[in-house]
Specification:
The structure holds 2 protein chains of 2 kinds. By secondary structure, chain A is α+β, with helices and mostly antiparallel strands. Chain A is elongated, with a radius of gyration of 27 Å. In chain A, 36% of the residues are buried. Chain B has one domain: Up-down Bundle (Butyryl-CoA Dehydrogenase, subunit A, domain 3). The longest helix of chain B has 33 residues. In chain B, 40% of the residues are buried. The chains are: A alpha+beta, B mainly alpha.
Amino acid sequence: MQKPTDELLVAFLDGELDEAQRTEIAAWLDQDAEMRDLAGKLSESASLLRAAFDDVEHEPLPARLIAAARGTTAGALATETSNVVAFAPRSRFKTIITDKRWWMGVATAAAVTGLVIGGGVGYFANNEPAKIAAVKQQLQQAQSNVALASGNWLDNIAGYHKMFVTAGSDDSGLVDVPGDDGQDTRKATQKLPSDIRLPNLKPWDLSYQGGRRLIVEGRPAMQLYYTTGNKQLGPLTLVIGSSNRPDSNATLDHRDDVNVIYWRHQGHSFAIVGTADIGYLWNLYKDIAYQLNNI
Amino acid sequence: MSTTAFSDQLIALLPRLRRFARGLAGSAVEADDLVQAACERALARSHQFQEGTRFDSWMFRIVQTIWIDLIRSRNVRQEEAESEGDRIGTDEPVRRTEARIALKEVMVAMADLPVEQRTALLLVTVDGMSYKEAAEVADVPVGTIMSRLARARVALQARLEAGGLRRSRDDAEANR
């Protein structure tokens, strides 16, 4: 056999040759020190080349490119507005669902309506009609909660994120599961269905501050509030819950100045909510998605 | 594919497209301009994308086509090749470590290669495509990719080695 060409040697290093060709090149490398030296240098330069471009893939994505991919402009993306539904006081929601295993008793948001309607009938049977208006109001509020917990959940979590940021995690009215010192997210995890695992966000310098329970697409979920010393990332909330819907790709959405990335993965729904640059949030999503694939 | 699904795929691909474009264009700003133009063209021609074919190959091809069109329209290929080495790194903070310097040298050395060889390197060596996939993107036979890649790898190696020798000589002179 003639001495292998550079083409064959490079193809050998790239794993592009068939078995017979690989054997021949390997035999040449065994007997030719000069070729071995060249092969080593070519491999080294290829590694350097990959390393040189490695950072680019991990850089935050510029907003203008996200906007271009969405068929809009960065300015339009930034100012794109959508209503953030005012979040109903959590205490009222709590009066309806008090069981610790709350998702067991309330499989769907519609069931909440059923509970209230049932309560209303009993009320009518035992009290004077003058209280009808009050019961109607209660029913309307419950229905509003149902709407928040299903169709408008993006508005809900974006609105709640803003309340978290404004009020902080010390507001006991906002937090179901406080972020006690040393407890980290363990307590929050205990409130979730057993098959849910939380991603590790410590490498992002994100510190868990507290969380609340909610319903996403009719299923139990938690919204976890994190803060960080990284001003570019800023405080953010992570929503994680169970889902009986098919997997879906990450989707970017906006509610006023709040960015939301949401997706479904293997029976779970997720959302990242924050006012950080879209590129940062997108990179965080990629890291979480990577972790979830390895959990 | 719905517009939203199309955009989702596009966004997921952006890091790879940016890396490819950075290798072609050299500067970060020009690379992002290139990717932005590719996104706009892809959205405008989304109806031309055939379901069942590889979306990433289709997008890489668009980036490459726009870049080649740009070079031709400017008719400054030689000028671009000469000046690219200077432009690379101007968007980045000053690199202080030796490792960074080495990586920068690689990028500078690659920028000296003809665009066809650079494309082959970026698709196969950097992005990890097979020869067949790279050939589809570049719209050339597999054998052409193979020869371009071999020439590129050997030339890159020679440039790096020459750079290392030059640096050693400079260091020696500086220490006299």
